[in-house]
């Protein structure tokens, strides 16, 4: 079955960087893009950006431009999301999702806590 | 950016009754709209795409309708497992989500 498995929880200090991985299985990785979505505690869903697993093209949400980088490793069917210059309001659960326009399926989520 | 507005923020309904959730787009998104269900501590799950097509494995009690700027998710007879938060998402011009509707037991 199609599945996305994400890396484990992270605790980071303000100003640091975090890199979250998302390993895909059950489908041809390069046939679809991957979107990243985050959810702050008790809040709604915020789309962060998209990467084509075919050619690496990206599109990032404007508010994260300059701080986020999305990459893929087609040899391992893994997508990565790196967020730099972390602030306390970056504390959230970060999800990857296979992007068909709609998102299906989603990874299980990775909690990133930013705290001094 | 296309703004998605969901109403109501909270909906209280008794099991077995019908629930109707609304989603409005700030400009036309054609039929490029999806609905998701999210339970506490879980990732969102796709329910509907293309405004009205049920995703694989989604029960027939879930239905979606609408096009352009006005959309509705209807759950015909609420089961205990349906009480959750529901989000709409447009994918006509990249992606934006509504703020969610919490469906709670009355």
UniProtKB/TrEMBL annotation, chain B:
GO cellular component, as recorded: extracellular region; immunoglobulin complex; plasma membrane
Pfam families: V-set
Annotated keywords: Adaptive immunity, Immunity, Immunoglobulin, Immunoglobulin domain
InterPro entries in alphabetical order: Ig-like_dom, Ig-like_dom_sf, Ig-like_fold, Ig_sub, Ig_V-set, IgV_Light_Chain
PROSITE patterns in UniProt: IG_LIKE
Superkingdom, taxonomy of origin: Eukaryota
GO biological process, one term: adaptive immune response
Domain Ig-like span(s) in chain numbering: 1-89
Coiled-coil portions: none
Protein's UniProt keywords contain Magnesium: no
Entry-linked Gene3D superfamilies: Immunoglobulins
Subunit structure: Immunoglobulins are composed of two identical heavy chains and two identical light chains; disulfide-linked.
Protein known as: IG c1182_light_IGKV3-15_IGKJ2
Organism: Homo sapiens (Human)
């Amino acid at each position: 079955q199609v599945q996305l498995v994400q890396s484990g929880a992270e605790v980071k200090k303000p100003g640091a960087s975090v890199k979250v991985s998302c390993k895909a299985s059950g489908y041809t990785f390069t046939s679809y893009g991957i979107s990243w979505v985050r959810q702050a505690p008790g809040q709604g869903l915020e789309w962060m950006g998209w990467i084509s697993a075919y050619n690496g093209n990206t599109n990032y949400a404007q508010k994260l431009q300059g701080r986020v980088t999305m990459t893929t490793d087609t040899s391992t069917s893994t997508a990565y999301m790196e967020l730099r210059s972390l602030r306390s309001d970056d504390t959230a659960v970060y999800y990857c999702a296979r992007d068909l326009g709609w998102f299906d399926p989603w990874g299980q989520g990775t909690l990133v806590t930013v705290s001094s | 950016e296309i703004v998605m507005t969901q109403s109501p923020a909270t909906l209280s309904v008794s099991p077995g009754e019908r629930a109707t959730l609304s989603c409005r787009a700030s400009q036309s998104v054609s039929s490029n709209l999806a609905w998701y269900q999210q339970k506490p501590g879980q990732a969102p799950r796709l329910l509907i795409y293309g405004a009205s097509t049920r995703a694989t494995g989604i029960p027939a009690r879930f239905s979606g309708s609408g096009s352009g700027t006005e959309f509705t998710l209807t759950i015909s007879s609420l089961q205990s497992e349906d009480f959750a938060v529901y989000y709409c998402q447009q994918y006509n011009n990249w992606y934006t989500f509504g703020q969610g509707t919490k469906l709670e037991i009355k």
